[in-house]
Design brief:
The protein is of the alpha/beta class. Helix content is 43%, strand content 20%. The protein has one domain: Rossmann fold (3-Layer(aba) Sandwich). It has helices at 15-25, 47-57, 73-80, 93-107, 125-133, 137-140, 146-155; strands at 3-8, 30-37, 64-70, 84-88, 110-114. A 5-stranded parallel β-sheet has the order 3-2-1-4-5, with helices on both faces. The radius of gyration is 15 Å and the shape is globular.
Length: 157
């Protein structure tokens, strides 16, 4: 059984993240989406809520589960028995390659880079947060899965 760990902040989950999860789920037996918490950053959503929204957005993928973790990616990858770490190989490809080499050097776990689809390559959680803060709720709808949209709009009321 092959297990892929897809780590990130997912604050919030967007369609680019979801595309990577879907493509990874088609390739590996199990996908663990790990919400990693950076204690130096204030998040838009609490980690437990991010996990819930990932689960709600991936109900069509029976081999996907989500969890949250504080600490290093390689530590959660080892605990989950991951064969690979999945990362999106898009606009920050240079940083992703450096991180992949470092993770493999310290853990022996390789990184599987997934190129984003052209239509999702420009989407980021930062962009969603900026639009949300500007009150542009309608503009974020195409960028995030429906459960995430509903949660963000409810949180802004």
């Amino acid at each position: 059984m092959s297990i892929a760990l897809y780590p990130g902040s997912f604050d919030p989950l967007h369609i680019g993240h979801l595309d990577v999860v879907e493509r990874t789920a088609a390739t590996f037996d199990e996908v663990v989406v790990a919400v990693l918490v950076n204690p130096t950053k204030a998040g838009l959503l609490e980690p437990a809520e991010r996990v819930e929204l990932i689960e709600a957005s991936t109900t069509h993928l029976p081999n996907v589960r989500a969890l949250w973790h504080e600490g290093l990616t390689v530590d959660v990858a080892r605990r989950q028995g991951a064969d690979v770490i999945v990362r999106a190989g898009g606009k920050e490809l240079r940083n992703e390659r450096t991180m992949a080499a470092t993770n493999e050097a310290v853990s022996g776990i390789r990184t599987f880079l997934v190129a984003p689809k052209p239509e999702t390559a420009a989407v980021s959680s930062s962009l969603v947060r900026i639009l949300l803060a500007a009150g542009r709720h309608a503009d974020i709808r195409p960028l995030i899965p429906p459960p995430v949209f509903d949660a963000l709009v409810a949180a802004c009321r």
